[in-house]
Amino acid sequence: MLGVILAVFTVFGVQLFRVQGLDASATQRAAMSKRSVKSVTPAMRGQILDTNGRVLAESVERFTVVGDPVAIAQYQVKVGDVREKVGAAGAASDVAPLLGMDTSDLEARFTRAGTRYVIVKKEVTPAVWRQVKALGVPGIAAERTAARVYPLGMALGPVVGVVRPSDQSPLSGIEYQFDRTLSGTPGTTVYERARDGYVIPGSERVDTPVVNGRTVRLTIDADLQWLAENALAKRVQDVGAKEGSALVVEVATGKVRAIANYPSFDPNDLGHTNLDHMRNGALDDAFEPGSTGKLITFAAALQEGVITPGTGVIVPNRLPRAGMRFKDNENHPTEYLTATGVIAKSSNIGTMLIGERIDPKVLVGYFHRFGLGSRSPIGFPGESAGDVPAPKLWVGASRYTRLFGQAYSATGLQMTSAYQAIANKGLRMPPTLVEGTMNDSGTLVPAPAQRGVRVVSEKTATTLSRMIEEVTGPDGTASDARIKGYRVAGKTGTADFYDQRTRGYNGFTASFIGYAPAEAPKYVVGVFLHQPTAGMFGGALAGPVFNQVMSYLIQRDGDPPSPKSSLDYHVWAGHKLSASDPNVLSQARAKRDGL
Amino acid sequence: MSQTIATARPLRAPRRVPSVAPLRVIPTRIGTSGNGAFGTLCIALLTLGLVGLLLLNTALAEGSLTLGSLQKESRVLDARAGALSEQIAQASSSNALAARATSLGMVRAGQRGYIDLASGKVSGTAYPATTLQKVPIVVAPMPAPRVVTRLTSALDGATEAAVAAARAVARLAGTAATPKVGESAAPPSATETLDPISKPAGSPATTR
After folding, report:
1. Residue A143 forms beta bridges with which residues?
2. Which helix (H) or strand (E) holds A475?
3. Active-site residue numbers of A?
4. In what order do the strands lie in the sheet with A187-192?
5. What share of chain B in percent tops pLDDT 90?
6. What is the Cα–Cα distance from A357 to A593, expressed in whole angstroms?
7. Which residues lie closer than 8 Å to A511 by C-beta, 6 or more apart?
8. What angle do CA A218, A223, A227 make, to 5 degrees?
9. What gap in Å lies between CA A345 and CA A339, rounded to an integer?
10. What average pLDDT does this structure show over B159-173?
């Protein structure tokens, strides 16, 4: 008997020693993992603001109202002094008006059989949830969630982007690019909990405080953005274009004040969104710019001393080059123009006669300094670098078509930025889209400043700027872009549009990029319309959008009417030019120089 | 340790004979036990302590109640502030402002004139704004599908032609009855596809 007791207690003793002595740490861990509970506090996503602090995107508190059909059936209301059980039907008729739902639909949810968890409604505002809670219906509870609202809606959708409504993870745009800044770090609390659910007093508790997301401030100006988007949208609809974009860049800083795309999408309404329209075409799509690209050829020609504004150019109706007969927009008798006239009337042949005198190596250098062929410092998700072929690829017909904006590609942003360089006296400020981020004390930490790139001399820029004022002059191609009382510099573009689907040219790109008042411009506006079905010319199609946006800016800034320019440039040479004149550019001279 | 040992040592010293206290008589009753000041003091301290504790507890309880109600109020106000700032953001957004301005009949400003304050010179000509400067507001994020209307009218035309043809056939056959669309001449598929497309807000039925 004693032996048995001794044996049993020996077993107990050994087991005790094993648990407390040998396996102590493992047992402790197991117990700890049973007791300790981790609760997560989600971080609030930061705001996205415009340059004036207006909200472009913000997170708001919402509730998902859920119900337990078993408990709801016990709902009682006080009628006079007695409590009367009204059940699910009563609950439905009380809750429905608050949630803006149909009573019968709600009752069906409240009486769903075989479940104790029914989602009643998502995205309920805190005020409404408080009213529902005050009814005291048993079994109705709410889960706290966050929702993202975009007050500017479709006007900025492709730029600001959107988050997935289910988990607030970023899908596109600034939301995607600056997710690390915006999202913050969720906080955690680890504590020990007794079996009855209470926190064990004096137990270990580890708190990691929540770090809310930071605010990102863009260079976008909300009012201007809306105006540009609205004007562009109307025009895209009117001319039946497949898509279009419009940009506004500040001359002195290179800050992008508006990026409009149409068709667009409303980030508040993802259900009705075409995935293709979430693209920020102004930055993500590279296309052949067409005649707006002549600016680069002329900048190089002026800077390299090939032309002056008054250089005579004899423009024939056809020009044979690389086994082809190049032509202008429309047939014309041989014209005697100045270099100014060539760009004002957007003559391809005249541009070829000028541009072929510059080595492609030199020209490619100008393309790069104008910002073409590389991504902008904005680094937008999906942003295109465009494509500027290397000098050794400037052979055959493309050597000539590149002089007037075909056979290479650029984005709308790059082209607008190129005009910013001329408007800014030859100094190109690389475009930026973000002013900075807010630190914890709410002050703005500015984004790193960009260094300007000297593209051409101040004199060349001033001369070229005055030359392209003739584009909106009486003989120019852009009468629709004129603003009464102001000198408007700019250039139209009508390019063949390369269609990815058909793998060939299909339709046109009509564009206008310009600025006013030309003597002291503050903003450059670029408008691009792809594949319009009514008309094709940049001046007529894109000009009116430029006009609306630019005249708004002039009025807003209170720019007084322009004084007359001191530079007197002419479109026509004024007399018949001689092909033998060594200063006049012509097919004869090209032959003489072996071009 | 050594100190303990050192002090303990005398205990081991040879015991002296203990001196016996002399016996004396104590009174059977102690008549007076002070004037009660000490007792009063004790009771007073106890009372004061208890009252103090009670007050402290009450204050604590009251404080926690106030804290609770203030926290609740703070939550309500917080939610209200959130809702209001959300409303402000919505109402002050450019598109909402433009829509409201247009609904009030406002238009864009006309051309302006400028007065140079230094020289008194007037430049530019000011014109009053007219309804021509009204800003049309686009609210659809994508253009209305144009192809649908064209397709609808084409299909309508086709159906009309088919019905007319069917009538002609019927007339030739000598039957007076009006043929139903979908029979013989009009292919059934034509009438079936007509229905969904004739709805104006239908899905874009693009042909390209």
Report:
1. A64
2. none
3. 291
4. A36-41, A187-192, A205-208
5. 17
6. 9
7. A289, A290, A292, A412, A415, A492, A493, A494, A495, A526, A527, A528, A529, A538, A542
8. 120
9. 10
10. 62
Burial class (CB in 10 A: 0-12, 13-18, 19+), A315: buried
Q: Please, what is the average pLDDT of chain A?
A: 92
A100 Rama class: left (phi>0) / alpha (psi -120 to 50) / beta:
left
Rounded distance between C-alpha atoms, residue A179 and residue A167, angstroms? 13
Nearest to A482 by CA among A511, A530, A514: A514
Cis-peptide, bond into residue A267, ω within 30° of zero: no
Query: Which residues of chain A does B96 touch, with a Cβ-Cβ cutoff of 8 Å?
Result: 151
The type of residue at A333 is P
Using a 10 angstrom Cβ sphere, with 0-12 exposed, 13-18 middle and 19 or more buried, the burial of residue A398 is: middle
Which of A78-92, A128-142, A381-395 is the most confident on average? A381-395
Provide the b/e sequence for B96-109 (b: ≥16 CB within 10 Å): bebeeeeeeeeeee
A523: β partners: A250
A153 part of contact set with chain B, CB < 8 Å: yes
Q: Is the peptide bond before B10 cis (omega within 30 degrees of 0)?
A: no
Of B96, B123, B135, which has the smallest distance from its Cβ to A561's Cβ? B123
What ipTM describes this predicted complex?
0.77
Over residues B3-62, the pLDDT tens digits come to: 444 454 555 555 666 677 778 877 777 766 678 889 999 999 999 999 999 999 999 889
Boundaries of every domain in chain A: 69-138
Closest CB to B94: pick one of A155, A233, A266.
A155
Whether A149 and chain B come into contact, CB under 8 Å, resolves to yes
Give counts: helices (H), strands (E), chain A.
20, 27
Answer yes or no: do A126 and B137 touch at CB < 8 A: no
Output the six-digit token pair for A324.
């082809």
Identify the DSSP state of A48. E
Q: Please judge whether A555 and B109 are an interchain contact, meaning their C-beta atoms are less than 8 angstroms apart.
A: yes
Phi, psi at residue A110, to the nearest 5°? -70, -20
B82 contacts on A by Cβ (under 8 Å): 60-61, 126
Paired tokens of A297: 């050829």
What is the crossing angle of helices A538-557 and A222-239, to 10°?
A: 160
B192 residue type, one letter: E
| Contact yes or no for A334/A340 (Cβ under 8 A) | no
| Rounded to 5°, angle at Cα B11 from B9 and B16 | 130
- Taking CA atoms, A516 is separated from A478, A561, A562, B53, in Å, by 14, 10, 9, 80
Residue B81 touches partner A, C-beta closer than 8 Å: no
> Could you give the CA distance from residue A54 to residue A72 in angstroms, rounded to a whole number?
44
CA distances from A582 to A303, A577, A590 (A): 20, 11, 11
Whose tokens are 């004396």? That residue is: B24
The pLDDT confidence band at residue A259, using thresholds 50, 70 and 90, is very high
- Alpha-carbon gap, residue A269 to A363, rounded angstroms: 46
Rounded to the nearest 10 degrees, how much is the dihedral formed by the CA atoms of A518, A523, A528, A533?
Answer: -70
**Closest alpha carbon to A150 in A172, A117, A120, A135:** A172
Helix (H, G, I), strand (E, B) or coil at A443: coil
Separation CA A421–CA A430 (nearest Å): 9
Q: Alpha-carbon distance A169 to A154, whole Å? A: 20
Mean pLDDT, residues B53-79 taken together: 89
CB contact (8 A) between residue B112 and residue A234: no
Residues A503 and B6: their CA atoms lie apart, in Å, by 108
Place of tokens 């302590």: B49
CB A428 within 8 A of CB A370: yes
Q: Do residues B111 and B125 touch, judged by C-beta distance below 8 A?
A: yes
Please check whether residue A453 is in contact with residue A296, taking contact to mean a CB–CB distance below 8 angstroms. no
SS3 label, residue B135? coil
Q: Compute and round to an integer the Cα radius of gyration of chain A.
A: 34
Cβ distance A263 to B141 less than 8 Å, yes or no, reads: yes
